[in-house]
Amino acid sequence: MSDEEPTSIWMRPERYERSGPGRRPGYSREQITRTAVRIADAEGIEAATMRRIASDLGTGAMSLYRYVPRRDDLFDLMIDMAMSEIELPEGSSGDWRSDLTLLARQMRAAGLRHSWLIALLTSRPALGPNLLRVYEYALGAFDGLGLDIDDITGYVGMLDDYVHSATRREIGWLEETRRTGLDPEHWKRDYMGPYVRQVVESGALPLFSRSVLDSRTAHLAPAERFRHGLERILDAIAALIASLPGDTVGQP
Amino acid sequence: MSDEEPTSIWMRPERYERSGPGRRPGYSREQITRTAVRIADAEGIEAATMRRIASDLGTGAMSLYRYVPRRDDLFDLMIDMAMSEIELPEGSSGDWRSDLTLLARQMRAAGLRHSWLIALLTSRPALGPNLLRVYEYALGAFDGLGLDIDDITGYVGMLDDYVHSATRREIGWLEETRRTGLDPEHWKRDYMGPYVRQVVESGALPLFSRSVLDSRTAHLAPAERFRHGLERILDAIAALIASLPGDTVGQP
DNA sequence: CCTATTTGCGTACTACGTACCCGAAATGCA
DNA sequence: TGCATTTCGGGTACGTAGTACGCAAATAGG
Lengths: 252, 252
Prior knowledge:
The first copy, chain A, folds into 2 domains: 9-82, Homeodomain-like (Arc Repressor Mutant, subunit A); 89-243, Tetracycline Repressor, domain 2 (Orthogonal Bundle). Chain A is 61% helix and 0% strand. Chain A has helices at 29-43, 50-57, 71-83, 96-113, 117-123, 129-141, 149-180, 184-202, 206-213, 222-242.
């Protein structure tokens, strides 16, 4: 009987309050995860190595494996810890727009606090309890409107996609500069800038050039730009709901 | 005078047809990239190591560095090679819906052929010539409709977000099974399945449970499900365009 | 105290990206 | 043709990963 069966970390809970023989555990999943999150926040996810986490805890790398089966599982725990910071009211308010606006802002804030979060979220199927809690809240915003469950998940997916990609863009080359070690100004001017300028000046891609040169939202403050895009998505969802058959109030 | 300045790979073209002293190059970026793509397609991006690529080419790992500055740059080259497979007509047809449907299908197909593509695309700012070409085509679909450039990039972003996340979901746990080494059925039944079942049976998340149990789109063929979601996004964009001020034809 | 059990963690193995360096090959010029 | 110059090929080696293994230390029950 081996307990090494490869199964989701959420099916392998930590043994709390074990009563029996053997040395008491000196650490905990929660403590290890918090340390990993702190390192990743400050120096990027690639700095949160097993050795480094252990070192910050004042122990050896292999000790961590008493608490976490694999490093990938630690990523799942980190995602869930970050998602646990998202504070939401108990149920839906009845106004799905304001519910989802609240959720989107909280999610963006969490993504900015933990620059690795969105990348991890979209790179692995993470269904931790806190992500499920947040997802349930999002679905709940559309509950009671008589919508099909597939439509609801579709709308929530649209919102998620927007929040993720907008937040990722916002972090985007900020992260890139930390990874390459270049400072932001240097990166934009010397690394990617010259190439974009060359492309624009070649005249071969007029619309891309317009999107670089004539963009007005590019000069907005990040939070304002996010709000603009969010309104667009919510408008789109509203339009889709309004156009559904069954709600043929204003139709001839 | 060092030529080691860290700058975008697209500003450091391969030296073609050099005439002068010195040994002739025995390989090429294109050849190295093609090999990397072939390995990554068959065994995942993590199998495309410098050593493995070199080995498949019958040479040593360090030889590759005569052609590619860093492994990350090779990723950019791989992205661009995959994007080069996307075949599009010269200009826009005048019907933005059909233009974008064509583009979305081609992009999904490329993402399925190269299961690493979407992950790489969204994890690094990749502006290779072929991605720009595709992007220009997408923007071009909305050209001539009198739309603001920021609106156009917003709509294209919505479409991109959908195609990426839908394709990623489609690959999703298929990739995960290859990474963990479990076969798909075993993964769904023994790895993630029990946890989802436990969550559903707990009754704590009724809407999530409905999305698992009552989904009708989940039983559709993947291509059909993709088409459904795509229609939804295109409908949403159409609704946004119709609601724009300036197009006040049917408004009181 | 003795034994069974659990944790802490040093050692070690494999695999990675890539810096350094030198011999091989190819050219232009004497 | 021979030599100097330049470029390519790739072996060796360094630093850093994740983590398997095994043993000592700690703890509880008998």
